[in-house]
Amino acid sequence: MRLSEWKLLSRPERERYLNALLIRLGNRFQVDQFTIGQDYPCIIYTNKLNIRYRLIFEHNSGFGLSTQCLEKAKKINVPLQITVSELTPFSIVNVPSYAISETPLLECDIDMILDNFCVNNPSYPAFLTREKSKEVLDMISARFLSELEWEAAVKNNQDVLFPFGDELPKESDLEWWMSFNFNKFRHKRIGNNICGLFFGEWCADLFSKNHSQDSEIVNGEYVIKGGAAYFWPWQDEEWVWCMCSMRMPSGDLIDGTSVLRPAITIPTNFSY
Length: 272
What we know:
Layout: H1 3-8, H2 11-25, E1 29-31, E2 42-45, E3 51-56, E4 59-63, H3 67-76, E5 91-95, E6 98-101, H4 107-113, H5 130-139, H6 147-155, H7 171-178, H8 182-185, E7 201-208, E8 217-225, E9 247-249, E10 263-265
Antiparallel strand pairs: 1-2, 2-3, 3-6, 4-5, 6-10, 7-8, 8-9
């Protein structure tokens, strides 16, 4: 199902599609009826805990840092504290349908999944090792997001510099975007309703030196996306970590942990 096709469906057609999808995903999911009329409807995982997923239908998305976004960044500050070669070349890529959790998993979520998990701040994102993240995903029948999927979600069908647009919000507004407290950051959502984007998130991909198809791969190090909240309040040019295209290898993590936003593969070519 392409996003352009979904937009043309009537409500009864959308309901039939979602009901057919749930049959394929199993009885652990239900549809949020209030979101059926939206471009990114919500399905809810309901086994042990509730995880709200947004469907991102197949579409074309920019991947990497475009020339236009590079020029927008230069208007904020020059020189930029980024390695442009790691974020390029920019390309337009077809992104198959998938589902993405509205939020990263919180400590209270992990406490319901794993035994003997130490909860310090229930409403804060849980920082997990790669191994623990994989264990959690296996237990909730989910997977890591690919770097492409993460970027496609935060760009939300646009070529934008930041998830919140092409300019930095005022500091008073940024405090809500950068807050680790779910009760604050849940109020700062982008168009597809996902939030909590700046804590650094595990991706499925091994880290490559750039986006070329023949790029050198760094063995044992995975892509981490987002991370500006790590440095808040910013002292200098840490705003670059808000950029949709920004990335880092997991070997640069302070303690080897990052946050986890589950994804689900959406079946294709089924009748409804």
